[in-house]
Protein backbone atom coordinates (compact mmCIF):
# COMPACT_ATOMS: atom_id res chain seq x y z
CA UNK A 1 0.00 0.00 0.00
CA UNK A 2 1.14 3.55 -0.70
CA UNK A 3 -0.23 7.05 -0.12
CA UNK A 4 -0.45 9.23 -3.20
CA UNK A 5 -1.76 12.70 -3.95
CA UNK A 6 -4.99 13.09 -5.89
CA UNK A 7 -5.66 15.38 -8.85
CA UNK A 8 -8.78 17.03 -10.19
CA UNK A 9 -9.18 14.14 -12.64
CA UNK A 10 -9.72 11.87 -9.61
CA UNK A 11 -12.82 13.77 -8.41
CA UNK A 12 -15.55 11.22 -9.13
CA UNK A 13 -13.42 8.22 -8.13
CA UNK A 14 -12.45 10.02 -4.93
CA UNK A 15 -16.05 10.85 -3.99
CA UNK A 16 -17.35 7.38 -4.85
CA UNK A 17 -14.56 5.71 -2.86
CA UNK A 18 -15.19 7.99 0.11
CA UNK A 19 -18.93 7.27 0.09
CA UNK A 20 -18.27 3.54 -0.14
CA UNK A 21 -16.33 3.71 3.14
CA UNK A 22 -19.60 4.82 4.80
CA UNK A 23 -21.82 2.38 2.86
CA UNK A 24 -23.60 5.29 1.19
CA UNK A 25 -24.23 6.41 -2.37
CA UNK A 26 -23.49 9.95 -3.57
CA UNK A 27 -26.28 11.76 -5.35
CA UNK A 28 -25.34 13.06 -8.81
CA UNK A 29 -24.03 15.55 -9.78
CA UNK A 30 -21.97 15.44 -6.58
CA UNK A 31 -22.59 19.16 -6.08
CA UNK A 32 -22.03 19.02 -2.33
CA UNK A 33 -18.42 18.02 -3.00
CA UNK A 34 -17.70 20.52 -5.76
CA UNK A 35 -15.52 22.58 -3.40
CA UNK A 36 -13.04 19.75 -2.81
CA UNK A 37 -9.42 20.83 -3.21
CA UNK A 38 -8.07 17.71 -4.83
CA UNK A 39 -4.57 19.15 -4.95
CA UNK A 40 -4.82 18.58 -1.16
CA UNK A 41 -6.38 15.11 -1.36
CA UNK A 42 -4.85 11.72 -0.63
CA UNK A 43 -5.52 8.19 -1.85
CA UNK A 44 -4.34 5.07 -0.08
CA UNK A 45 -3.82 2.64 -2.97
CA UNK A 46 -3.01 -1.05 -3.24
CA UNK A 47 -0.07 -2.43 -5.19
CA UNK A 48 -2.22 -2.62 -8.33
CA UNK A 49 -3.33 1.01 -7.96
CA UNK A 50 -6.83 0.51 -6.51
CA UNK A 51 -7.88 3.25 -4.03
CA UNK A 52 -8.91 1.85 -0.65
CA UNK A 53 -8.78 5.00 1.48
CA UNK A 54 -9.33 8.74 1.16
CA UNK A 55 -8.45 11.92 3.00
CA UNK A 56 -8.56 15.57 1.95
CA UNK A 57 -8.25 19.10 3.30
CA UNK A 58 -9.77 22.49 2.66
CA UNK A 59 -7.88 25.77 2.92
CA UNK A 60 -9.77 27.79 5.53
CA UNK A 61 -9.14 30.73 7.80
CA UNK A 62 -9.89 30.31 11.51
CA UNK A 63 -10.66 33.16 13.88
CA UNK A 64 -8.78 32.90 17.17
CA UNK A 65 -9.42 34.69 20.48
CA UNK A 66 -8.58 38.36 20.05
CA UNK A 67 -10.07 38.37 16.51
CA UNK A 68 -6.80 37.06 15.10
CA UNK A 69 -7.22 35.22 11.78
CA UNK A 70 -4.88 32.39 10.76
CA UNK A 71 -4.83 29.81 7.96
CA UNK A 72 -6.19 26.42 8.96
CA UNK A 73 -6.31 23.10 7.16
CA UNK A 74 -9.82 21.63 7.34
CA UNK A 75 -9.60 17.82 7.28
CA UNK A 76 -12.44 16.09 5.46
CA UNK A 77 -13.48 12.96 3.53
CA UNK A 78 -11.45 10.57 5.69
CA UNK A 79 -12.35 6.92 5.23
CA UNK A 80 -11.07 3.39 4.59
CA UNK A 81 -12.95 0.71 2.67
CA UNK A 82 -14.30 -2.02 4.97
CA UNK A 83 -12.16 -4.57 3.10
CA UNK A 84 -8.98 -2.83 4.28
CA UNK A 85 -9.72 -1.71 7.82
CA UNK A 86 -7.37 -2.48 10.70
CA UNK A 87 -4.35 -2.69 8.44
CA UNK A 88 -2.83 0.67 9.35
CA UNK A 89 -4.31 2.49 6.33
CA UNK A 90 -5.94 5.28 8.35
CA UNK A 91 -2.84 5.83 10.47
CA UNK A 92 -0.63 6.04 7.40
CA UNK A 93 -2.92 8.58 5.71
CA UNK A 94 -3.30 10.76 8.80
CA UNK A 95 0.43 10.87 9.50
CA UNK A 96 1.14 11.62 5.84
CA UNK A 97 -1.42 14.42 5.94
CA UNK A 98 0.02 15.96 9.13
CA UNK A 99 3.47 15.98 7.54
CA UNK A 100 2.04 17.75 4.48
CA UNK A 101 0.37 20.38 6.65
CA UNK A 102 3.66 21.13 8.36
CA UNK A 103 5.49 21.27 5.04
CA UNK A 104 3.01 23.97 3.96
CA UNK A 105 3.80 25.98 7.10
CA UNK A 106 0.36 25.57 8.65
CA UNK A 107 0.29 25.94 12.42
CA UNK A 108 -2.95 24.06 13.07
CA UNK A 109 -5.59 21.87 11.48
CA UNK A 110 -9.27 21.31 12.26
CA UNK A 111 -11.98 18.77 11.56
CA UNK A 112 -15.50 17.65 12.36
CA UNK A 113 -15.35 14.19 13.90
CA UNK A 114 -17.76 11.57 12.59
CA UNK A 115 -16.66 9.33 15.48
CA UNK A 116 -15.26 10.80 18.68
CA UNK A 117 -13.03 7.79 19.39
CA UNK A 118 -10.93 8.14 16.24
CA UNK A 119 -9.21 11.49 16.19
CA UNK A 120 -7.71 11.97 19.65
CA UNK A 121 -5.01 9.47 18.74
CA UNK A 122 -3.99 11.79 15.90
CA UNK A 123 -3.75 14.82 18.20
CA UNK A 124 -7.18 16.43 17.68
CA UNK A 125 -9.32 17.62 20.59
CA UNK A 126 -12.91 18.97 20.69
CA UNK A 127 -12.71 22.76 20.95
CA UNK A 128 -16.17 24.18 20.13
CA UNK A 129 -19.62 22.99 21.07
CA UNK A 130 -23.14 23.47 19.77
CA UNK A 131 -26.72 22.56 20.58
CA UNK A 132 -30.24 22.78 19.26
CA UNK A 133 -32.86 24.99 20.93
CA UNK A 134 -36.58 24.27 20.51
CA UNK A 135 -39.08 26.93 21.54
CA UNK A 136 -42.87 26.34 21.44
CA UNK A 137 -44.89 29.18 19.98
CA UNK A 138 -47.00 29.39 23.13
CA UNK A 139 -43.87 29.93 25.25
CA UNK A 140 -42.27 32.52 22.99
CA UNK A 141 -43.06 35.62 25.02
CA UNK A 142 -39.98 37.74 25.61
CA UNK A 143 -39.18 39.18 29.03
CA UNK A 144 -35.94 40.88 28.02
CA UNK A 145 -33.69 41.66 25.13
CA UNK A 146 -33.50 44.87 23.14
CA UNK A 147 -33.79 44.66 19.38
CA UNK A 148 -31.54 46.57 17.02
CA UNK A 149 -32.81 49.60 15.10
CA UNK A 150 -33.52 48.78 11.50
CA UNK A 151 -35.82 46.45 9.62
CA UNK A 152 -36.14 42.85 8.46
CA UNK A 153 -36.58 41.98 4.80
CA UNK A 154 -37.85 38.55 3.74
CA UNK A 155 -36.03 37.05 0.75
CA UNK A 156 -35.59 33.68 -0.90
CA UNK A 157 -32.21 31.95 -0.81
CA UNK A 158 -31.90 32.13 -4.59
CA UNK A 159 -32.14 35.92 -4.46
CA UNK A 160 -29.67 36.81 -1.71
CA UNK A 161 -26.49 34.75 -2.09
CA UNK A 162 -24.20 37.78 -2.15
CA UNK A 163 -25.83 39.23 0.96
CA UNK A 164 -25.39 35.97 2.87
CA UNK A 165 -21.74 35.72 1.82
CA UNK A 166 -20.96 39.29 2.87
CA UNK A 167 -22.79 39.13 6.22
CA UNK A 168 -21.25 35.79 7.14
CA UNK A 169 -17.75 36.99 6.24
CA UNK A 170 -18.05 40.02 8.54
CA UNK A 171 -19.42 37.82 11.33
CA UNK A 172 -16.79 35.08 11.14
CA UNK A 173 -13.98 37.62 11.55
CA UNK A 174 -15.29 38.56 15.02
CA UNK A 175 -16.18 35.13 16.46
CA UNK A 176 -13.48 32.87 17.90
CA UNK A 177 -13.81 29.39 16.43
CA UNK A 178 -15.48 30.57 13.22
CA UNK A 179 -14.20 29.36 9.85
CA UNK A 180 -14.16 31.21 6.56
CA UNK A 181 -16.48 30.16 3.76
CA UNK A 182 -14.47 30.63 0.57
CA UNK A 183 -16.30 32.22 -2.36
CA UNK A 184 -16.24 28.99 -4.40
CA UNK A 185 -18.46 27.37 -1.74
CA UNK A 186 -21.13 30.03 -2.21
CA UNK A 187 -20.69 30.17 -5.99
CA UNK A 188 -21.18 26.42 -6.43
CA UNK A 189 -23.71 25.91 -3.62
CA UNK A 190 -21.39 23.37 -2.00
CA UNK A 191 -22.34 22.43 1.54
CA UNK A 192 -25.39 22.60 3.73
CA UNK A 193 -28.03 25.37 3.76
CA UNK A 194 -27.78 28.27 3.47
CA UNK A 195 -24.62 27.78 1.39
CA UNK A 196 -26.45 25.28 -0.78
CA UNK A 197 -29.16 26.61 -3.02
CA UNK A 198 -31.82 24.40 -1.43
CA UNK A 199 -35.08 26.38 -1.11
CA UNK A 200 -35.03 28.50 2.02
CA UNK A 201 -36.57 31.71 3.24
CA UNK A 202 -34.04 34.20 4.58
CA UNK A 203 -34.89 36.95 7.05
CA UNK A 204 -32.26 39.62 6.38
CA UNK A 205 -31.82 42.28 9.05
CA UNK A 206 -30.70 45.71 7.85
CA UNK A 207 -29.38 48.42 10.15
CA UNK A 208 -30.71 51.98 10.30
CA UNK A 209 -28.66 52.83 7.19
CA UNK A 210 -30.01 49.84 5.24
CA UNK A 211 -26.82 47.79 5.46
CA UNK A 212 -27.40 44.03 6.01
CA UNK A 213 -26.01 43.02 9.40
CA UNK A 214 -27.68 39.68 10.09
CA UNK A 215 -29.83 36.90 8.71
CA UNK A 216 -31.78 33.79 9.67
CA UNK A 217 -32.15 30.99 7.10
CA UNK A 218 -35.23 28.83 7.69
CA UNK A 219 -37.83 26.49 6.26
CA UNK A 220 -40.90 24.58 7.41
CA UNK A 221 -39.58 21.07 7.92
CA UNK A 222 -42.75 19.38 9.14
CA UNK A 223 -46.28 20.51 10.01
CA UNK A 224 -46.07 23.24 12.59
CA UNK A 225 -42.25 23.28 12.86
CA UNK A 226 -40.07 26.10 11.59
CA UNK A 227 -36.41 25.06 11.49
CA UNK A 228 -33.67 27.70 11.42
CA UNK A 229 -30.49 26.48 9.73
CA UNK A 230 -28.39 29.23 11.25
CA UNK A 231 -28.67 32.72 12.64
CA UNK A 232 -25.87 35.16 11.86
CA UNK A 233 -25.89 38.50 13.65
CA UNK A 234 -23.53 41.43 14.09
CA UNK A 235 -24.47 41.69 17.78
CA UNK A 236 -26.96 40.47 20.38
CA UNK A 237 -29.55 43.10 19.47
CA UNK A 238 -29.65 41.90 15.87
CA UNK A 239 -29.82 38.30 17.06
CA UNK A 240 -32.78 39.20 19.28
CA UNK A 241 -34.60 40.90 16.39
CA UNK A 242 -34.18 37.80 14.23
CA UNK A 243 -35.28 35.46 17.04
CA UNK A 244 -38.42 37.53 17.61
CA UNK A 245 -39.17 37.45 13.88
CA UNK A 246 -38.93 33.66 13.78
CA UNK A 247 -40.97 33.10 16.93
CA UNK A 248 -43.75 35.43 15.79
CA UNK A 249 -44.28 33.50 12.56
CA UNK A 250 -47.90 32.54 11.95
CA UNK A 251 -49.19 28.95 11.75
CA UNK A 252 -46.33 27.30 13.62
CA UNK A 253 -46.36 25.42 16.90
CA UNK A 254 -42.62 25.53 17.50
CA UNK A 255 -39.34 26.89 16.18
CA UNK A 256 -36.12 24.87 16.16
CA UNK A 257 -32.89 26.84 16.21
CA UNK A 258 -30.04 24.62 15.01
CA UNK A 259 -26.38 25.31 15.75
CA UNK A 260 -26.70 27.50 18.85
CA UNK A 261 -23.50 28.48 20.70
CA UNK A 262 -23.16 27.70 24.42
CA UNK A 263 -23.61 31.39 25.29
CA UNK A 264 -26.75 31.96 23.20
CA UNK A 265 -28.94 34.37 25.23
CA UNK A 266 -32.38 33.33 23.94
CA UNK A 267 -33.44 31.10 26.86
CA UNK A 268 -32.66 33.93 29.28
CA UNK A 269 -34.71 36.37 27.22
CA UNK A 270 -37.90 34.31 27.38
CA UNK A 271 -40.44 35.01 30.09
CA UNK A 272 -40.59 31.25 30.68
CA UNK A 273 -37.00 30.02 30.97
CA UNK A 274 -38.13 26.40 30.63
CA UNK A 275 -39.82 27.11 27.31
CA UNK A 276 -36.46 26.80 25.57
CA UNK A 277 -35.57 23.10 25.37
CA UNK A 278 -31.91 22.28 24.73
CA UNK A 279 -31.07 19.09 22.84
CA UNK A 280 -28.36 17.69 20.62
CA UNK A 281 -25.60 19.15 22.80
CA UNK A 282 -22.42 18.02 21.05
CA UNK A 283 -18.89 18.83 20.03
CA UNK A 284 -18.30 20.49 16.66
CA UNK A 285 -14.88 21.80 15.68
CA UNK A 286 -11.83 19.75 16.70
CA UNK A 287 -8.41 21.45 16.78
CA UNK A 288 -4.91 20.06 16.32
CA UNK A 289 -1.80 22.20 16.92
CA UNK A 290 1.02 21.53 14.46
CA UNK A 291 3.48 24.18 15.65
CA UNK A 292 2.90 24.80 19.33
CA UNK A 293 5.02 27.94 19.84
CA UNK A 294 3.64 29.64 16.71
CA UNK A 295 0.05 28.66 17.53
CA UNK A 296 0.23 29.91 21.11
CA UNK A 297 1.81 33.22 20.13
CA UNK A 298 -0.72 33.75 17.33
CA UNK A 299 -3.90 34.06 19.42
CA UNK A 300 -4.90 36.97 21.59
CA UNK A 301 -4.66 36.81 25.39
CA UNK A 302 -6.57 38.67 28.09
CA UNK A 303 -4.64 37.96 31.31
CA UNK A 304 -0.96 38.23 32.15
CA UNK A 305 0.79 35.15 33.47
CA UNK A 306 3.33 32.41 32.99
CA UNK A 307 2.92 28.66 32.57
CA UNK A 308 5.24 25.78 31.73
CA UNK A 309 3.45 23.25 29.53
CA UNK A 310 4.80 19.73 29.10
CA UNK A 311 3.18 18.46 25.90
CA UNK A 312 3.15 14.89 24.62
CA UNK A 313 2.42 14.22 20.93
CA UNK A 314 2.36 10.43 20.48
CA UNK A 315 0.90 10.60 16.95
CA UNK A 316 4.09 12.28 15.72
CA UNK A 317 6.40 10.72 18.30
CA UNK A 318 7.26 14.13 19.78
CA UNK A 319 7.53 15.59 23.27
CA UNK A 320 8.20 19.20 24.20
CA UNK A 321 8.24 21.50 27.20
CA UNK A 322 7.35 25.14 26.63
CA UNK A 323 7.42 28.31 28.70
CA UNK A 324 4.34 30.39 27.86
CA UNK A 325 4.67 34.02 28.99
CA UNK A 326 1.82 36.49 28.45
CA UNK A 327 2.20 40.23 28.90
CA UNK A 328 -0.17 42.97 27.74
CA UNK A 329 -2.16 40.69 25.46
CA UNK A 330 0.82 39.16 23.63
CA UNK A 331 2.56 35.86 24.28
CA UNK A 332 6.01 34.39 23.97
CA UNK A 333 6.45 30.61 23.86
CA UNK A 334 9.90 29.03 23.99
CA UNK A 335 11.34 25.60 24.84
CA UNK A 336 12.41 25.29 28.46
CA UNK A 337 13.95 22.89 30.98
CA UNK A 338 11.95 24.31 33.88
CA UNK A 339 9.69 22.06 35.90
CA UNK A 340 6.22 21.85 34.33
CA UNK A 341 3.09 23.43 35.71
CA UNK A 342 0.82 21.28 33.53
CA UNK A 343 1.44 18.02 31.67
CA UNK A 344 -0.96 17.30 28.82
CA UNK A 345 -1.51 15.58 25.50
CA UNK A 346 -1.46 17.71 22.37
CA UNK A 347 -5.15 16.81 21.84
CA UNK A 348 -6.01 18.44 25.19
CA UNK A 349 -4.00 21.50 24.21
CA UNK A 350 -6.18 21.66 21.10
CA UNK A 351 -9.31 21.50 23.25
CA UNK A 352 -8.31 24.45 25.46
CA UNK A 353 -6.70 26.51 22.68
CA UNK A 354 -9.80 28.49 21.61
CA UNK A 355 -11.05 29.06 25.14
CA UNK A 356 -14.10 26.82 24.90
CA UNK A 357 -12.85 24.14 27.29
CA UNK A 358 -11.54 25.09 30.73
CA UNK A 359 -8.13 23.54 31.54
CA UNK A 360 -9.31 22.99 35.13
CA UNK A 361 -12.12 20.77 33.82
CA UNK A 362 -9.60 18.54 32.06
CA UNK A 363 -7.50 18.48 35.24
CA UNK A 364 -10.57 17.25 37.14
CA UNK A 365 -11.23 14.69 34.40
CA UNK A 366 -7.69 13.34 34.72
CA UNK A 367 -6.67 14.34 31.19
CA UNK A 368 -4.28 17.10 32.31
CA UNK A 369 -1.90 16.69 35.24
CA UNK A 370 -1.33 19.78 37.39
CA UNK A 371 2.01 19.99 39.21
CA UNK A 372 1.09 23.08 41.26
CA UNK A 373 -2.25 23.65 43.04
CA UNK A 374 -2.69 27.11 41.53
CA UNK A 375 -1.84 26.05 37.94
CA UNK A 376 -5.40 25.07 36.85
CA UNK A 377 -6.90 28.42 37.87
CA UNK A 378 -4.10 30.32 36.19
CA UNK A 379 -4.52 28.26 33.03
CA UNK A 380 -8.28 28.97 33.05
CA UNK A 381 -7.59 32.70 33.25
CA UNK A 382 -4.94 32.61 30.54
CA UNK A 383 -6.74 30.45 27.99
CA UNK A 384 -10.15 32.12 28.24
CA UNK A 385 -11.55 33.88 25.17
CA UNK A 386 -13.56 37.08 24.92
CA UNK A 387 -16.64 34.95 24.20
CA UNK A 388 -17.45 31.28 23.70
CA UNK A 389 -15.88 29.97 20.51
CA UNK A 390 -18.40 28.71 18.00
CA UNK A 391 -18.25 27.19 14.54
CA UNK A 392 -21.26 26.99 12.20
CA UNK A 393 -19.52 25.75 9.10
CA UNK A 394 -20.00 22.14 7.98
CA UNK A 395 -17.27 20.59 5.84
From TrEMBL:
CDD domains: NAT_SF. Acetyl-CoA binds at residues 78-80, 86-91, 114-115. GO terms for biological process: aminoglycoside antibiotic catabolic process. One of its GO terms (molecular function) is aminoglycoside N-acetyltransferase activity. Gene3D superfamilies: 3.40.630.30, SCP2 sterol-binding domain. Homohexamer; trimer of dimers. This is GNAT family N-acetyltransferase.
Amino acid sequence: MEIRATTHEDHDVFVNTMFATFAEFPEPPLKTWSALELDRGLFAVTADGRPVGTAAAYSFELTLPGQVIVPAAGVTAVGVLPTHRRRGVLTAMMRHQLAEFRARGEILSVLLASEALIYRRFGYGPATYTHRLTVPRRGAAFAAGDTAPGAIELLRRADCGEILEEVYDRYRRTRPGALSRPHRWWASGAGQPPISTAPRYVAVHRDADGVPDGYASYSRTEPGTLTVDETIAADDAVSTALSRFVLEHDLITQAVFKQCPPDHPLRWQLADFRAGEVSGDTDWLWVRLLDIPRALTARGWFTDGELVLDVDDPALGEHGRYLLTVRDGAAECVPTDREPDLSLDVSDLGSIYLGGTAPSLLVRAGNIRAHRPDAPALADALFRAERSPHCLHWF
